[in-house]
Amino acid sequence: MKKGIGLAALLLIVFLTACGNSGSSSDNSIEFLVSGDSVEGNAISTMAKKYNEENDANVKVVDVPYEDMATRVTNMVRDGNPPELIRTTKFSPLWQDQLLNLGEIGKERNVDESLFIKVENEVKALPLDLTAVGMFVNKDLFEEAGVEYPTSEDDIWTWEKFTSSVKKVTENTNAEYGFVMDQSEHRLLTMLYQFGSEGIRPNGNGEYQVNQETNEGIEFFTQLNNEGVMPKNVWTSGANAASLFKSGRVAAYMSGNWQLQDFSENITNFEWASVYMPKEDTRATNLGGNYIVAFDGTGNEKATNNFISWLYKKENHEQMSRIGGYLPVVENAEVNYQFAQESFEIYQNEIDASAEVSSYMQTEIVAKQLIAEESTNNVLREEVIGVLNNDKSIEEALNNTTDAYTEAYGNN
Amino acid sequence: MIKNQKALWALAFIGTNLILFIIFFLGPALLGLYYSFTDYSGISASFIGLNNYIQLFQDGSFYGALFRTIVYAGIGVPLIYCVSLGVSLLLTSYKTRGKGLAKIAFFFPWLISPIIAGVIWRWLFGESFGFVNFILENLGLSTVSWFSNGIMAFAVLFFASVWIGTAFNMLLFMSALVNIPGTYYDAAKIDGANTIQKFWHITLPALRPTSFMVILLSVFNLMKEFPLVQSLTNGGPGSDTTLLVQYIYETGFNKLDIGYASAASMILFVLLLVFSLLQLRSEKRWQN
């Protein structure tokens, strides 16, 4: 009951805020909803300010809590008063009919087409800032143990080699764990791709399935957890993987380029480095990041399009990526980062060397969010947690996962 | 006429409350009931009759969550009852020193949000950097995997629940204890009753109405516990501490299966209703 009251109160607040906004959204002023800009060096706000000064425009960047973005935008759309522009990772089917087709801008500005979110041949969203999964090592621990890690693309390690290396590190130093991975489906999928998984894909009948390699990857992952190479409490009970790595007592950490700024500024008790990720079968990373979505029916469509086009202009995109520490999505863009330049180069190499699957699931599942009402958000993660907790077998976990995908997306 | 006028006045006085009740309480409740018969996903709903309920009664993870909720309330409520009664007895005893400070210390948990309480306990019992494991390690003992072992995670949850539950219930007990007439104890003393006899034959019977309140409120609170579990264990390891409300939240907000989640909410509602009716009945029997 309490929840009902809270929900109703929330709706009322949203309704009132929406009403409050309705007066201001005209006269070519663009409301741009963004999450977490302040922790990313105010990249978006800086660009908006620059645009406003150069073009005598009025782009207003509004910071919205990450968790609230989809709900808030959905409510605004329902109310018939959508924002002009948002930067998001989550989508709702309710938006689908009210989105501007950004295909032309994307093509004109040479944005990476494999990352376009397309529904029925219309580009509903463009990637704005790209992220990729990558590996960090504690350089001090590796050196102390006298263990080597690959420094160029010519000597990429296998998962077997990687595991024996980090085991050696824990044996010969005071390191507590060899390896830690964020409790995230996105990270786990990266590892599975490296084992040769093709992700979770539909067959001809629209039934989703996984290949045998996926099974093997999860088996390996489970073994790492059960042997104590990885701390089990990260995946089973949500201990913070990043703080474990930052404590200096973990040899390697699989996360992504979004950590670079934080690590550069805040890790002072040891030397760390970005290294090439292991592969078993294929080299792969997993792409992610935010998308830019523009709404139709605001009366400011033209101004919005102009701003988006400006934002993707090569030098502007480079500047934004530099401030925010983003990987660029515009072809041939070269970014001189303010920190961890070598790490960014490794990420770029990883992306270039990655199999097609690295962007497939991401764009596919994001596009599904615009069509399907049900969500498969974290299904695989929850199932694998069940495996680690000895609640179910890998076989069962994968069957449950593919069933959930089929149920949610099978008819679309 | 006069009667009608009185009724009108009464209505005017409760009007605000009534409107709020209907908008924010009755409305959502009825909406929830309706959703439980649909496959509502937050976007569109079509009527599917009793399908959600049929599916629910065949769902192993629903039974798991239900069972854990009953265990949680079944163990947690007696624990909270005993500890808060014990603490209030100590705090009303004339022998205790430093009552003022102790009252503040015991009441403190009530002043912080359950989310913060969860974070505090999570930090205390953290496996890698936790305070408790740090102490254990320094004493030369082996550390305990508080959150990756299901039973231990439940134990930490009990600690935290009792810590929070004691704060408010202690207040109820203390005011009731102070109000027990001293003459009873004097009479018992003359009759030669010892402390245990006095407690058993005077204190406990005199506390009946308060005990009824404490038990009822605790059962409701524990069966509906959400923020504490969310911030402390997040239902983990695996689903070992996933209670019914977590389960409802997961299905409703993560899987967007709001119809199904509403059906589960209705079951929780019926459970709580049945419990309060039973409790009311037994209270009446006490009074007679």
What about the largest sheet of chain A? 9 strands, mixed
Determine the structural class of chain A based on helices, strands and strand pairing: alpha/beta
- In CATH, the architecture of chain B is Orthogonal Bundle
Task: Kindly estimate the percentage of residues of chain A that lie in beta strands according to DSSP.
Answer: 15-25%
- Indicate the multimeric state: heterodimer
Estimate what percentage of residues of chain B fall within beta strands: under 5%
Radius of gyration of chain A: 22 Å
Radius of gyration of chain B: 23 Å
CATH topology of chain B: MetI-like fold
**What would CATH call the homologous superfamily of the largest domain in chain A?**
Periplasmic binding protein-like II
Considering the chains and any ligands shown, give keywords for the structure.
heterodimer, A: 412 residues, alpha/beta, D-Maltodextrin-Binding Protein, domain 2, 9-stranded mixed β-sheet, 17 helices, B: 288 residues, mainly alpha, MetI-like fold, signal (chain A), Alpha-1,4-digalacturonate transport system substrate-binding protein (chain A), Bact_solute-bd_prot1 (chain A), SBP (chain A), transmembrane helix (chain B)
Q: Any overview of this molecule?
A:
The complex is a heterodimer of chains A (412) and B (288). In chain A, the strands form two sheets. In chain A, strands 1, 2, 3, 4, 5, 6, 9, 10 and 11 form a nine-stranded mixed beta sheet that branches. A two-stranded antiparallel sheet of chain A has the order 7-8. The radius of gyration of chain A is 22 Å and the shape is globular. With 412 residues, chain A is of the alpha/beta class. Chain A has helices at residues 2-22, 43-55, 69-78, 103-108, 139-145, 159-172, 185-194, 212-227, 232-237, 241-246, 260-266, 301-311, 314-324, 341-353, 357-369, 379-388, 394-409, and strands spanning 29-34, 58-63, 85-88, 117-119, 122-138, 177-181, 201-202, 208-209, 250-256, 272-275, 287-294. Chain B is mostly helical. Chain B is 76% helix and 0% strand. Chain B is built from 13 helices and no strands. The longest helix of chain B has 34 residues, at 2-35. The two termini of chain B are 38 Å apart. The model of chain B has no long low-confidence stretch (mean pLDDT 90). The chains are: A alpha/beta (412), B mainly alpha (288). Chain A binds chain B through residues 1-5, 7-9, 92-94, 176, 231-233, 236-239, 243-244, 247, 249, 373-375, 377-379, 385-386, 388-389, 391, and chain B through 23-25, 27-29, 31-32, 41-44, 126-129, 145, 147-148, 150, 153, 224, 233-234, 236-240, 254-257, 265, 269.
